Every structure is written in C-alpha cells, then in structure tokens.
Here is the input.
Amino acid sequence: MESDALFSLGGPAAAPSAPAGPGGVDGFSTVGEDSPLPVRMRPASIDELVGQEHLLAPGAPLRQLVGGGAGMSVILWGPPGSGKTTIAHLVAGATDRRFVAMSALNAGVKDVRAVIDTARRQRRAGGPQTVLFIDEVHRFSKTQQDSLLAAVEDRTVTLLAATTENPYFSVISPLLSRCVLLTLQPLDDAAVRGLLRRAVADERGLAGALTLETEAEEHLVRLAGGDVRKALTALEAAAASATALGTGRIDLATAEQAVDVAAVRYDRDGDAHYDVTSAFIKSMRGSDVDAALHWLARMLVAGEDARFIARRLVIFASEDVGMADPTALGVATAAAHAVEYVGLPEAQLNLAQAVIHLATAPKSNSATSAIGAAIADVRAGRGGPVPRGLRDAHYAGARGLGHGTGYRYPHDDQRGVVTQQYAPDDLVGTDYYRPSGHGVERSVAARLPLLRRIVRGLPAPASRPEGPAPVAVNGRHPSGTGHAGGADEGGVHAAEEGQQ
Here is the structure.
C-alpha cells in the first residue's frame, strides 16, 4: 500500500513540525506553505481542539490517548469535519510510539498483516509500541476487520479507527467489543465561526491579510453544516478570489462566487426557520409536491438538522395523511431511521422520497380530529369507571370482585366482532372517529357503520332491503369461509348500510 501522502502532519507552517518520536510516523507527511488551509490550521495540541468538550475532561480516554498514557484501542465515530483525523495527527505526535496510518479505501488484509508483523517484531525486540490508524474503517470487509482481532486483543497494536458510519452496524461486534467507542459531535455554529476567525488571524492561515465580513462569515458557517473542513476550504477559495480582485476584504458576494452556492436567507433560530417549516408543511398538506421539495431543499442547503425535518414528516404522516394512506407513517418512519443510519448528504434522497410520498398521498385528518375530541372529553371530566367486564381478571380475588364477568371474546364469533360495552357509561354511543372518503379510508368508512351497529347492539337501518347478500365483518364471512364475496374493498357490502 502507498501509505505516504494520505494525510498531512505538522505544526504551523512557520514552526517546526510536530515530533515524530523514536518510533516514527508512516503515512503522514509534513505541512508545507502550499498545504490546504484545513491542513495548515489543524490543531497542534489537544488544547486547540474545538467542539468535543465532552471528551476533553482531565483523565478522559481522549486525553490519555493523545498523551500516550493509554494503551486501549479506540474507534472515533463522528460526521465529516468533526476532528477524527485531527485526533489521529495529535496521537501521531506522541514521542514514544510508532505511528502507522492507512485508509480503508485502498488498504487490504495484506497491508494490515504487514503492519502487525512489523509491530510484533519490534515489540519482541523491545521497540516502541505501534499505533495503527485506519481511516474509513467501515469500508473494511468482515474478513479485513477479522484480521485485526488478535493483534488488538493482545495489544500488539493499539488501534485507532475512524468512521462516519454507525459502528454498531458497520464494525463487527468482536472488534467493537475490544475498543473504546468515542462519539464526536458535529461542531456547532459558534465553534465553526471561532475556527474561521482563527484562520483569518492566525499565521498558519490568512495571517490577517484579509478581513471577513459578517454576512460572508455567516454564509460560510451556514454552508459548513458543522463540517469545519468544509468551512475552511470555502474560506480559502473566497480568500483567493478576494486577492485576485485586489480587495482586502471577503464580502458575501465574493464568498458566494468562490463556492458557487447562493446564500440562503434562513436562520435556524429565527423567524425564517418557522416560516420555511410552515410553508413546507402546508405545501405537503396542499398536495403541491414541487413546492414541498423546494422548501425541503431550502432547509437542507441552509443546514437545517435533518432529524428535525424527519420528525416533522413522521408527525405529518399521521396528522394530515393518516388513514387515507396508512403506509405513509411507515415511509416517514423509515426516512427518519435512514437519517440516523445513513446521515447527510445521502439521506436527502430518503427525505425527498418521503416528501414526494406524503405530498402526493390522499389526505385525511380524521386521526387528528378523533384524538383531539377524545382528549377534550377526558379533560372535561367525561368518562367513568372501566366497565366491569373489561377489568383485569388475572389476579387472585378478581373474579370475586366481578372483574371480567360477562366479557365476550370476539374471536369466538364467526364475524370476529360481538355486541359488548367497551366505553364508560357516559360515553356510550359517542363517535370520535369520522373517516373521510379519501384513499384507503374509503373502505374503512364503508365498514365502520356496521361495526358500530354490531358492537352497540343497534337495530338494522329501516331502509335495509329485503334479503341482503351475506356481509363480511373484519374480513370474515358469516359462512365461516373468510371470503367477503360481493363485499366492498373493506369487506362490508355497500347495500348493508344503504351506501353506493
């Protein structure tokens, strides 16, 4: 494997490189004046690391790892630009260990075994401990990950692995159990903003040669979405444009032109956040799929939390689609899971699919209205004791109290439904659920009147024709065949309730 030039290592461009230690560093190169800005601005010490305060407490595993005082293997899990490779550089600067870096993109089992064999020979000869850094470890196959187990188990190597994927899905359990999992959080806007300002002023960065205007700074923060590498790369491009124009400042227009992304007027904590979210929901409710996709794109480009968008879709699926298309909730929930499992940017495809499904689905707010009416009655004090036949009869003495007495088991009836009181006394006959005639709910609307008539023991409608065809209830035919011959989609004959 070609291990050199995979990454860069070193301190400020004007300062000496970080010490490689007696063991040496294989896989990282030193920083030069022409290195990319994110490389030049990489922290030279753990105290410069920003945004992972939960891992930086005194004695925490991350401090022990960087300081060289811990021999445990570690998996770093976090989104792009959160500091995984930076931590690897800091570990590589430790003075008492040999450090080897490789990427799972172009390394194989042969490369891994070669590092392990060398580490084992050096260990037996009293040489320094070997730290093996594997970037994108989730791209290793099961066989490749298996090849690490024994060496990690006996500490022939100390594994430092980085992944953007959930390690509970992407890393085999035996390897995961041998490592400490450290979860890195996306950098918040304040952290990204602080690092941009450091890069503008620091000798390693722009050295104060240019000023960054507030609107341009906010645009770069928004564009980054928590990825500081992305923010610094965009800053470097904007600085090059400003220098070419002969101006000493980076304004919004220069920043936009440099990164070819228009600034989105959107504040996740301000009015625009609520306005765009409202427009997004109302567009889906109004079945304008194209407008809904625009507002989705607006939120994604502005850096809105994808989990927030996914939560809104899950709510919408029941609030505005509901029983008209019961599959909508499954689609929205699957999209929410995809956001957690896959992450952005790929998860935007899952969100788009869910938005298209929800916007084009038939609509019904019957579930919203039904639970709202039921809650209103409960808050108004309507209700009463649980009917005696429905009370729990499983504990000793329950039968003596009359609990469960008179309860009829619906499955004993060939129709699967029986006459029985389920509601409290003062709510008998109350209708909360009023189905629409849209989509799949049309079949529910046809079946529901018959279900209520049987459950409540009501007489058949006076307009009932003589000699009706057999009716299927809950998909079960009175003959016991389970076939609803001649019935409507939901198993209720339209003529039974005088419906067409």
